[in-house]
Amino acid sequence: MVRSKWLFTCLFFLALAASAQDRYMVFFTDKEGTPYSVDAPLEFLTQRALDRQAKEGYVLTEEDLPVNPAYVQSLREIEGVEVFFTSRWLNAVLVEMPASLEDEVMALPFVTGQPEFVALGNRLTYSKEPLIISETFTNPATLTYNTNAQVTMLGADELHADGHTGDGILVAVFDGGFSGVNLRAPFAALHQENRIIGTFDYVENSGNPYQFDDHGTQVLSCIAGKYASSFIGTAPDVSVILAVTEEVYKPNSSTPSEYRIEEYNWLFAAEMADSAGVDIINSSLGYSHSHTDPTMDYTYAQMDGQTTVVTKAANEAAARGMLVVNSAGNDGAPANPWQYISAPADSPEVLTVGSVTSTGAKSDFSSIGPTADGRIKPDVAAMGSLATTVDEDGNIVRSSGTSFSSPLIAGFAASLWQAFPELTRTELMDLIKSAGTLADNPDNALGWGIPNYLIIIEDPLGVNEAFQVAIYPNPASSILTIERNVTHEVSYRILDLKGQSILTGTLNPSEAQLSLEQIPTGIYFLHLQSGNFSETVKLLKK
Question: Is it the case that residue 159 has pLDDT exceeding 70?
Answer without folding.
Answer: yes
